[in-house]
Amino acid sequence: MPAERTLPVAGSNSTVLVFADADAAARAAADRIARVVAESVAARGKAILGLATGATPEKVYDDLAARVAAGTLSFRDATTYNLDEYYPIQPLDPLSYRAYMHRLLFSRVDLAANRAHVLDGTVPEEATAEHAAQFDRWIDADGGLDVQLLGIGRNGHIGFNEPSDLSVEGFAARSTLLIDLHPVTRADAVREFGSLEAVIPRALTMGVRQILGARTVVMLATGPKKAAIVAEALKGPVTAAVPASLLRTVADKVVWLLDEPAAAELG
Ligand code: F6R
Questions:
Q1: Fewer Cβ in 10 A, N or C end of the chain?
Q2: From the candidates 120, 136, 146, 162, which is the catalytic residue?
């Protein structure tokens, strides 16, 4: 196993594990997801997984796909719900998160196609509220998420729950919804879209209620660009202005998996 240390963060009972590099942190995230799949299937005959996209979890999906190929993991009894999707977007658009998930995970594992849920970027705008409510009802009907994999935006967003002036209670209770992307998120999306003008400025996102309601939350953050916001989320005030800080309201079930550069400002 790679070198790992547990970082005590003053004033926070969050579990923070720091790994020598991003690959080791991703492997640890895959380990935890694989363990939740095994334990949930053993206990309840099914595993309900909340998944993330972006650059950070790519290696997690490579690792999970390798385990399935090796016969040590199966998604046969799994159901997945992704955090978010651009709006509007076609699922076959290579920039959609549906396409990302197909490329990195769905096409490589034994997950039933009708149990791989990604919010639908093609629903008519008037129907987005009902679609979002339906997404929450599906997760609730499945008994909630056994595990939610998260990344963190440079502005502290989780899913596409952008910084907000809502109260902590109001933000924590928020349902799945259509949102405007924050300028920092749009700037970071230039990496995928090629230019700021090309970035789709809105998205559907799972609300904070479902994220905080997951029985386990795995936050994966790697690289120096995440150092400042990781420190802010773990050591600054708990506020909707820093969405990931709300993970401290459910700290007992949250694990932060960091590489050394992302942990650099935690002291
Ligand atoms: C993606 C998502 C976002 C990303 C975050 C970090 O589904 O919900 O919150 O996790 O923007 O993105 P990367 O990993 O590209 O730095």
A1: N
A2: 162
pLDDT for 2 equals 56
In a domain, 198, yes or no: yes
* Pocket of ligand 1 contains residue 51 by CB under 6 Å: no
Q: Is 41 helix (H, G, I), strand (E, B) or coil?
A: helix
- Average pLDDT (104-129) is 98
Q: Residue 29: phi, psi to the nearest 5?
A: -65, -45
Ligand 1, atom 4: nearest CA belongs to which residue?
151
Q: Is residue 93 part of a domain?
A: yes
Evaluate whether 7 touches 16 at the Cβ level (below 8 Å): yes
DSSP assigned state of 82: E
- For 28, the domain range is 14-256
Question: Residue 133 is part of a domain; what is its CATH number?
Answer: 3.40.50.1360
Q: How many distinct structural domains can be found in the chain?
A: 1
> What is the spatial order of strands in the sheet that 177-180 belongs to?
84-87, 202-205, 177-180
